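User: Sequence in, structure out. Go.
Assistant: Echoing your sequence, followed by the structure tokens.
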Amino acid sequence: MQLEEIDRRIIGALQVDGRASWRTISKVLGIPLTTVVRRGNALIEAGVVTVTVMTLAERTAIIEVTAESAQVDSVAQELASRPETVFVYALSSPTRLVLEQYLSRRELAYSVLEDIPSIPGVHGVTATPVLDYHKTLTQWMPDLITPAESARLNPNHARLNDLRGRADDGDLAMLAALAADGRTGTARLAEVTGYSTTTVRKRMERLLTRIAEVRAVVSAENLGLSAEAFLWISTSPSRAAEVADAIASNPFTKYVVTVLGEHQVVANVAMADYEAFREFLAEETWAGLVRGVRASTVLRTYKSGGVVV
């Protein structure tokens, strides 16, 4: 599907608030409602953008997997199929997979020592626990709409949610429906759960601030961002949060975490081209605070934001 400027603006609006009504998006962007409805639905039906709701977790880890070259694809697909996996990318330099998984400490030990190594073709697994999130795909919107439009759609878009609640059985039924289609309406959620629409609205407010996040998943390439990479950044542990926040402030940064490992910060960044990447890596606000950067180009995306590609 060939994207036009209107399509990119609608995608930007969905990245800011994936559950915003077409009418609200039309009003904020100044695009006729019929156009927004037609093109927005076409983008979703074509799979260019997928709106989902992802449950947050207390513990996550960045896992790197090396495999036989001929089996990288099958290993990646196996890992992407697992519900605890958030993303899976194939990287270069050297060729390997990077993934994020929601795992408890016990589950992480089993995953790294027994489970993943048992997948045919795998011959190396390393894991780095995530300490803090500084940006996730939920906060990514690479200048597709203006800051003023973003604020009108969702004043809280740039803020990270904290896990402060637990899902009960009613929440789980709603989350299952929303994982399949993050734009599922209140009336349909009431049918699924048996709750009144008033109760659904109250639960939704709690879910989306304490338990889960709405994510509009779209590939960087579809947005014209052809240079995507993961960065492992070494800095003083006392400056790690400062470096991570500085990197996260760039609108083309998709994901930034501080981790417990050889490197202190891991980031996923998508730029228009490698010249833009060169300028990003020389950014004065954070480049002077780091000791080194290990960069790996993204070769293929298998899962992003909990959505299998």
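User: And one key feature?
Assistant: The CA atoms of residues 60 and 197 lie 34 Å apart.
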